[in-house]
Amino acid sequence: MIAIIKYNAGNTQSVAFALDRLGIHYKITDNTEEILSAEKVIFPGVGEASTAMKYLQDKNLDQLLPQLKQPVLGICLGMQLMCRFSEENSTKCLDIFDLTVKRFEATQTAKVPHTGWNNLTQTKGWLGPQFENTFVYFVHSYYVPVNPYTVAQTDYIVPFSAAMEKDNFFAAQFHPEKSAEVGEMVIKQFLKIKK
Amino acid sequence: MLTKRIIPCLDVKDGRTVKGINFKELRDAGDPVALGALYAQQGADELVFLDISATDEERKTFAELVKEIAAECTIPFTVGGGIKIIQDVERLLKAGADKVTINSSAVKNPDLINQLAREFGSQCIVLAIDARNVGDYWLVHTHGGKKETEKELFSWAREGELRGAGEILFTSMNHDGTKNGFAINALKELSKTVTVPIIASGGAGQMSHFVDVFKEGNADAALAASVFHFGEISLPDLKAYLRKNDVEVRD
């Protein structure tokens, strides 16, 4: 069974629908036992960092998530919350990745939030090389700089981490659940990961 | 490279897709769920569903419809129409919408933008602005273009951004329904005024209009309805045409 972490994330339903379309069995839950016993865990996220962290703290999920041993996929804000600290309202996060989430600075030609379809480059790790130059959907104002855990990059104002990997923790800044066929392939790729 | 977005817009009333020509005349263009899925398959980058229902009873139907759309739709979609309070947005996002547009209610109560951005994040709050060019000014209109306000397009867009809107959807009432092209000069000016992405709306008639709106108007996305609904422009043809004219789009 796949556990989708239940909290105030905006895209929970979209992630669930994406799994429905793939015929995957899942449960949306904040129950410790159910999360611990899940084969894989998806940690969605759309919203604001400090509000999301507060919600996780209220449910003790901030303690549980970093201790999980099965494959965990953080999506968008979920990926950012897996980092140590976010510049979004100076929020202390889960510290799974010892990284700081930074804010994009808009330029004359580049708007913030980074909204729309952009391509993945230097894809490796859990994504593998087949995602090189595929287009996926992004919408975010904060980003994780390129770092040793980066397994896919995207260029917008600066090159940033489009996907990451560390031990059993996997992450995507883009929205696989909203990225048409490519997104479905990304979800399948995560589901294929052997523990 | 971030690509330019093509967004078919579906006006919905009683569970059916309609398109208002200059906000008045309505023509039926099919089932919104099926039409949305078809557009996604043909390469639409996002979809917008606008609820143009007049009554509360019809609005309840729309929330149900959003759930059906979300179950089928593999690309992001925005919903709007008649959103007044925070609970309206919560219901639509929970049903599976990715973003919401607010228009009249934001003009009436600008603080709604702040509240929504704080609660759900700027990324899902699209400020829709309908404006008409009158002499030197672009006057903002509400209630589907029926009511003139004292607000002016550029200052209102800037205020909306500062209050937390994550995108601006600008419809030129002068251009909407004419099929003579987008409001290029106003869009160019708007692009200098705000730092959030701009969705251009109103006036699409030919494929060259989309090249102009991206290259001259500096829009980040272009929205159109009837040219897609009635098969005058096909999405794959439009994407190929844009690519040929050096506008980066997704395959």
Please, could you describe this protein's structure?
The complex is a heterodimer of chains A (195) and B (251). The radius of gyration of chain A is 15 Å and the shape is globular. In chain A, a hairpin with a 2-residue loop joins strand 12 (158-166) and strand 13 (169-172). Chain A has 6 helices and 13 strands. Chain A starts with a strand and ends with a helix. Chain A has 195 residues and is an alpha/beta fold. The mean pLDDT of chain A is 95. Chain A has a single domain (2-192), classed as Class I glutamine amidotransferase (GATase) domain (Rossmann fold, 3-Layer(aba) Sandwich), CATH 3.40.50. Chain B has 251 residues and is α/β, with parallel strands linked by helices. Chain B has a single domain, classed as Aldolase class I (TIM Barrel), CATH 3.20.20.70. Chain B has helices at 32-42, 56-72, 86-94, 104-108, 111-120, 153-163, 184-193, 207-215, 226-229, 235-244, and strands at residues 5-13, 16-21, 25-28, 47-51, 77-80, 99-102, 125-134, 137-142, 147-152, 167-172, 198-201, 221-224. In chain B, helix 1 (32-42) packs parallel to helix 2. The relative contact order of chain B is 0.15. The model of chain B is unreliable at 20-29 (pLDDT under 50). Chain A binds chain B through residues 10-11, 13-14, 17-18, 20-21, 46-48, 51, 77, 106, 110-119, 135, 137, 139-141, 155-156, 175, 178-181, 183-184, and chain B through 1-5, 40, 45, 70-71, 74-76, 93-96, 98, 118-124, 166-167, 195-198, 220-221, 250-251.
